[in-house]
Amino acid sequence: MRAWAAVSVILAVWCAPSAARAACTRSHAGPDAPTAVILSGGGAKGAYEAGVVAVLAERRVPLRIAAGSSAGALNAAMLVAGRTDRLEAMWRSLRRDQVYSMRAPVFFAGLLPGWLTLLALDGTSSLLDPRPLRELISASLDLGLVRSSPVRLLVTATDLVRRETRAFDNRTVTVDVLMAAAAVPGVFPPVAADGAILVDGGLTSRAPVIEALEAAPVGRALVVVSYAPGEPSAPPTTMRRALDAAVETAMLHQIRRDVELARLTHPGVDVQVLAPSAPLRVRPLEFDPDGLARIVDLGRADASDCLRAWGD
Q1: How many other CB atoms are there within 10 angstroms of residue 253's CB atom?
Q2: What is the residue-wise DSSP string for 188-254?
């Protein structure tokens, strides 16, 4: 139980709430305006993004760039590769054992008393083993399609040594980069890629809207987040809940800051935020196919409402 409590605390970074009111409004950009979509991830909450991008692809929204951090990086890469059908099918059937397994030392550490648990955890590289996720990415994503795609890809990770954001595109993205983009520190091990030690891009750029707008000229940007405004949370009466609330608050302000900065520095771009219209009611590691299918359907419905609001 102690090990799972540690997982819950660290994985709060996969659950950042959305920026204030987050529903699409009438767009001043025309239906043919080149569009950027920015995906902020969220572990199992990434199923919502899969539903959103499936509709964007089906309705032939003129996407110029897809950007993502954390779990949103794989979603963005699949979108760029033109395989949103495969992405949606994957999310609808995804199980926990296809994403991670518990490391044996961590499992047995949870059986130890008191300080011995902390001592055992201090000697492990991460709480979870991400090898199933690597196999899933390798089997699902055709990097050749990413390299040749007319839609630009932007994936962010965090360089732990230099303490800065690292960005990768169609040419430089690899399976290692996508693993690093979702490597929440402590939960998954850091990944050596491109001469750096990389972890989750959400640490420095939860919703990389600024990076996306600097990478390609667009008339409209849609920032997709995975936390419904007003979604109830447990009162922060314990240390774990207080830490959860603190991290989520920090991420909320990061998204707000980046969205408002993007609007200020790119006044000609219609920057909008889309969040779930109803609580997802799933934690980042809850990969239950029935629950994920429900979340995909909600993403599809919200994306359809968004396009109607735009007038597209």
Answers
A1: 13
A2: B--EEETTEEEEEGGGT-SS-HHHHHHHS--SEEEEE-SS-TT-----S-SHHHHHHHHHHHHHHHH
pLDDT (tens digit per residue) in 128-142: 889 999 999 999 999
CA atoms within 13 A on the CB side of 41: 33
Could you give the dihedral angle defined by the CA atoms of residues 40, 45, 50 and 53, in that order, rounded to the nearest 10 degrees? -40
pTM for the model: 0.86
Question: Which single residue is written with the structure tokens 């395989």?
Answer: 83
- By three-state DSSP, how is residue 76 classified? helix
Dihedral angle sign, alpha carbons of residues 24, 25, 30, 33 = negative
**What confidence tens digit (pLDDT) does each residue in 266-291 have?**
999 999 999 999 999 888 888 999 99
235: exposed, middle or buried (Cβ count in 10 Å: 0-12, 13-18, 19+): exposed
Closest CA relative to residue 143, chosen from 84, 81, 87: 81
How much is the mean pLDDT over the chain?
Answer: 85
Per-residue tokens: 82 = 């033109």
Query: Beta strand pairing status for 191-193 and 196-200?
Result: antiparallel
Between the alpha carbon of residue 290 and those of residues 280, 286, 287, the distances in Å are 12, 11, 9
